[in-house]
Amino acid sequence: MTILIAYATRAGSTREVADYLAEVAREHGHEAVVKPAAEVRDVRPYSGVIVGSAVRMGSILPEAMKMMKRIRGQLGTIPTAYFAVCLSIKEDLPKEHAKIRQSLAKMSAIHAPISTALFAGKVDFSKLNWFFRMVLSKGEKAIPEGDWRDWAAIKQWGESILPSLA
């Protein structure tokens, strides 16, 4: 059986998490296909689906939501799991986690997941457009370049959901 890992990203961090989850699945003997959410049209060939999205301005990216709406009729009994990658949760602030979970709830309303996860992201100014470079680098709340993704936590979550997806 093959697991689909669909992602929506702006600067590539979420795609890297999707690729890593595919590696985790393969390490455990499963096949995994990684695709941009905008390209997903048919999920029926897969035993399970993982959907990941970056979060911008407090919301899941539109292409992830469009994909979920496009495939909702196909999901039936296909187990799904959702993850979000968001810079604002790099610090353990319950208010930020709750805000991102509300975004994931919109996907959950389309199809109930077996699991959801939140992961901190990274900042690479060379991959951001001028607007986000300006927003992140100016003022009292300026954020330096860095990678806050917890790869051990990502692996642990991936391993925990594999039995239900494959």
Descriptive account of the structure:
With 166 residues, the chain is an alpha/beta fold. The model has no long low-confidence stretch (mean pLDDT 85). The longest helix has 17 residues. The chain contains 5 helices and 8 strands; from the N terminus they run βαβββαβαββαβα. Helix 1 packs across helix 5. Strands 1, 2, 3, 4, 5 and 6 form a 6-stranded mixed beta sheet that branches. 36% of the residues are buried. The protein has a single domain, classed as 3-Layer(aba) Sandwich (Rossmann fold).
Tags for this entry?
166 residues, alpha/beta, Rossmann fold, two-stranded antiparallel sheet, globular
Give the SSE map.
Blueprint: E1 2-8, H1 13-27, E2 31-36, E3 48-56, E4 59-60, H2 62-75, E5 80-85, H3 94-110, E6 115-119, E7 122-123, H4 130-137, E8 146-147, H5 151-165
Parallel strand pairs: 1-2, 1-3, 3-5, 5-6
Antiparallel strand pairs: 3-4, 7-8
Helix pairs in contact: 1-5
Shape: globular
Question: Helices and strands, in N-to-C order?
Answer: EHEEEHEHEEHEH
CATH class bucket = Alpha Beta
List the uncertain runs. none
Q: Into how many domains do the coordinates divide?
A: 1
**CATH homologous superfamily heading:** Flavodoxin domain
Strand percentage lies at: 15-25%
Helix content range: 40-55%
Give the CA-CA distance, first to last residue: 6 Å
Number of helices: 5
How large is the radius of gyration? 15 Å
Can you tell me the CATH topology? Rossmann fold
Mean pLDDT: 85
Structural class: alpha/beta
Main pleated-sheet profile: 6 strands, mixed
